[in-house]
Design a protein that fits this description.
heterodimer; A: mainly alpha; elongated; B: mainly alpha; 13 helices
Chain lengths: ~280, ~300
């Protein structure tokens, strides 16, 4: 038993630790960073890590890398958070209705889901951005438009199974209205899956945002987003490795922490759920 | 079996038709589609002429019917940048992408399946912990960052491999590793859990009870029965491999479909974008059709559902 419990606890604590660190960086960026992430200083450009006053060094415009990485956490978690809430609300509501009503709403929703899943997630979000425009608001909208399907599918499946339980039949037999039945008996029993999907989706949204900004369709420079910082770092890879290492490392560690936390949530709340 | 094939083909045709509709809907997302289909250096007075020539003054159903009819013949219009047939450009880039995706898929199976089997058989042992940590890391590491780091180590520092482009095997090494890393992690995790499920079954106990060697118990009785979920996930992930190729090809300047799509998006060359998006969705849908048919052939119960 001991052997089986060990990785379990590691998942939880490492996941919690990394997620809290990212959260702390995001919330405390203005106080933790000694420099303005946008202030340029050409006399100090491309200083390696450990340079006086710049722990992680500076970029090609002399901006402090630590300040930019910390503010990047702010942006990444904000975009990830907004997208997760938006997709959970929209996808969750659609899945709930489709699973509960069945018949044509269910069929239509599943066909839309099939079609949407035949386009790679990143490509779909990026194409939407190229058409409707770039920037913070549009990237949240395009990620949400591309990401709601997963919730809709999972929630619909869960509703279909919860609906068959005895307590739901009993409540229906007692004359409870369909809306009340849905909100009082079905929704609370589907909620854990929504939470688990949300936590697992969170990291993929953060990575997707970075990838889209990296390719030039998301957050634009000089705003300190990890993806656009990595994109700028490509030109300096030959002599300034720190510009690529730290923003990407921050992104990978954040994704790792949130992933571990999501895995742990699934193990404890809903072990059979496959996402 | 024949009825199953026919119904599955019907569904595939429907999904493809709907995905064409989705592409059409996307082309109208911005409100004024003319702006998406015009050369970038157009004068304002030419806009109306263009609107007329491209048929954007016709009623929407007419435009839609014309779009679908054209697309069915592979006609997505002319590239605004290259003045060539958009579909022709896309198809010319397809072999490079298939080479890259195929190599990474082979690499994925070569790494992930043995890793999944080993970690399941040695459950909670040292190897299992190492395997679990590396799959979790593999899943969390963004491909484009891994790509940059590999370029820094193997091209900039060690000068062993070229930073990008297409050519010999040495050009294929880093892109296929980057593309395979994420999927190997997912497939290894799934193989492990499918193997653990199968190892708990009674037929495994029977096989051991009748004195079969451990190698045959694992290879013949357990792995074979775990194959179905693994093959399904591989099929479902195929679309994401193509999505990953978009990023990987851009980092390593690999002249495939993904890089073409990103460049077309940057140049606002939308006929090429829509042709590429449709071809990618077509490939994905066909792979899933093949997976489903392979399934029904392997497991007769599937056909009856």
């Amino acid at each position: 038993m001991n052997g089986a419990r060990r990785p379990f606890a590691l998942k939880k604590w490492l996941g919690l630790g990394l997620t809290l660190a990212a959260l702390l960086a995001a919330l405390g960026a203005p106080w933790l960073a000694a420099h303005d992430p946008l202030r340029t200083d050409f006399a100090q450009s491309l200083k390696p890590p450990g340079a006086p006053g710049h722990v992680l060094g500076t970029d090609q415009l002399g901006r402090d890398l630590l300040a930019r990485v910390l503010h990047g956490a702010r942006l990444a978690l904000f975009i990830g958070g907004c997208t997760v809430v938006l997709t959970a609300l929209v996808g969750g509501a659609l899945g709930l209705v489709a699973g509960f009503v069945e018949r044509w709403p269910s069929t239509v929703l599943m066909r839309i889901a099939d079609v949407q899943l035949s386009f790679p997630f990143i490509l779909l979000a990026m194409t939407i951005n190229a058409i409707v425009g770039l920037g913070l608001r549009n990237i949240i909208l395009s990620l949400s438009a591309a990401g709601w399907v997963v919730y809709a599918r999972v929630v619909r499946g869960e509703v279909l199974s919860v609906k068959q339980r005895d307590y739901v039949h009993a409540a229906a037999a007692l004359g409870m209205s369909r809306t009340r039945l849905l909100l009082r008996h079905v929704l609370p029993n589907v909620a854990p899956s929504i939470v688990v999907v949300a936590s697992l989706q969170f990291s993929s949204f953060i990575v997707a945002e970075a990838a889209i900004s990296f390719l030039g369709f998301g957050i634009q420079p000089p705003t300190p987003a990890w993806g656009s910082m990595l994109s700028e770092s490509r030109d300096f890879l030959y002599f300034a490795w720190w510009l690529a290492l730290f923003p990407g490392g921050a992104l990978a560690l954040t994704a790792l922490g949130v992933n571990l936390l999501g895995d742990w949530l699934r193990d404890t709340m809903d072990p059979k759920l496959r996402v | 079996m024949r009825a199953y094939i026919v119904s599955r083909l019907g569904q595939t045709a429907l999904v493809l038709f709907l995905s064409l509709t989705a592409v059409f809907a996307m082309s109208r997302l911005s409100g004024d589609p003319v702006l998406l289909f015009m050369p970038m250096d157009i004068q304002t007075k030419d806009v109306n002429e263009f609107r007329q020539r491209l048929g954007f003054n016709d009623p929407l159903p007419v435009q839609y019917a014309r779009f679908v009819a054209g697309a069915a013949r592979g006609d997505f219009g002319e590239s605004l940048r290259y003045r060539q047939d958009a579909m022709g450009l896309v198809l010319a880039r397809l072999p490079a992408t298939l080479l890259l995706a195929g190599t990474s898929m082979l690499l994925t199976f070569a790494i992930a399946v043995p890793l999944g089997v080993l970690t399941a058989v040695r459950r909670d042992g040292f190897l299992d912990h190492v395997g679990t940590v590396s799959t979790v890391l593999g899943q969390a590491t963004p491909g484009f960052w891994l790509g940059l780091m590999l370029i820094y180590v193997f091209s900039v520092q060690l000068r062993w491999l070229p930073t990008g482009g297409i050519g010999g095997v040495e050009h294929l090494v880093m892109p296929s590793i980057v593309l395979a890393a994420f999927y190997s992690a997912r497939i290894a995790r799934l193989t492990r859990s499918a193997m653990l499920d199968a190892l708990g079954e009674e037929y495994v106990l029977t096989a051991r009870a009748k004195g079969l060697g451990e190698g045959r118990v694992i290879g013949k009785h357990t792995l074979r029965n775990s194959a179905i979920p693994i093959v399904t996930l591989a099929g479902l992930e195929a679309g994401q491999v193509l999505g990953g190729a978009v990023i990987t090809e851009t980092i390593f300047a690999w002249p495939g479909l993904g890089r073409l799509t990103v460049q077309a998006l940057l140049n606002r060359d939308f006929p090429v974008v829509f042709a590429a998006v449709f071809v990618i969705s077509l490939i994905y849908t066909l792979i899933n059709l093949l997976v489903d048919l392979a399934y029904a052939w392997l497991d007769p119960r599937v056909r009856l559902h």
